[in-house]
């Protein structure tokens, strides 16, 4: 039992490192939808931690609503802006920059993590240090209270962009501004119930960005039964991303991660997910897998096949397509965390949130294969080392996980 617990804890640790490394490696080319732009802007494919350029070849930051979800053109003109007033206090100038090409993560250093990954690390620390189970309502209350404090505190992070779910949450939050754990939870539950029952769901919330903050709920439930782990993740996502299409997709990912944390074969988990009715993408994926196997590993030709696969399966943020791409790469790189993370990055598109979720799977599996996330990446991360060290200290003092 002790040996098994140690193995699971190693898998949890490597999943955290994989999540953060994949996010940081992808950060400079996040939302690069034309992969040729990656080579042009960085003199070749990304091979490690790199700082972003100040400009982005296909930025739509200036079109994004500062008052809530989606773009400015579809926003409610009567809603007061949250960017610059409630969150991202010193970043509004980049959202309104007339150049129209500002990078979403301008100013972050090499090894910096995006806002969603930083939020995920905070979730993990709250859960690891709390006197509650990850599936308990008290856990969700504590996490949301910390989320509000972090997001509304000036200078709490250096990222420039906050995606729609953050803006939507704080657009609704700003009227009453609850901060106590029970009050924030009650607010989020009321809001979730209203939005899940609305005849017009916010399509911007049906996005792969729902996963990073949910991953810690699975990690902290690694030693619990599968249903408890899945339930913990699903119940939290309902509060941040209240969209009716998400429950089966979040459940699918949470089951795969929980199984991988407990030693299951990631290749088999990925195939099962791709064959599931929720994705139904196995036949398409198998064709790309067979094409890729014709070329040497790490070759330019094989990378082009993977890029074509991701472009076909789902390059953007929408959850079903992004999950299909994620599990395709989990299948293809089930035993190679380094190349899996790099390939995800160089496929472009929504590679940060997709990468964070993929990196957690690859890292967890690596722990059972005698492999790890590269040490130079761990050392080069800016925010993650101290925060992960704190989580591991918490876990070593507790009987959980």
From TrEMBL:
InterPro entries: ADP-ribosylglycohydrolase, Ribosyl_crysJ1, Ribosyl_crysJ1_sf. It holds the Pfam family ADP_ribosyl_GH. PANTHER family: ADP-RIBOSYLGLYCOHYDROLASE (PTHR16222). Belongs to the ADP-ribosylglycohydrolase family. This is Uncharacterized protein. The lineage of its organism: Eukaryota, Metazoa, Chordata, Craniata, Vertebrata.
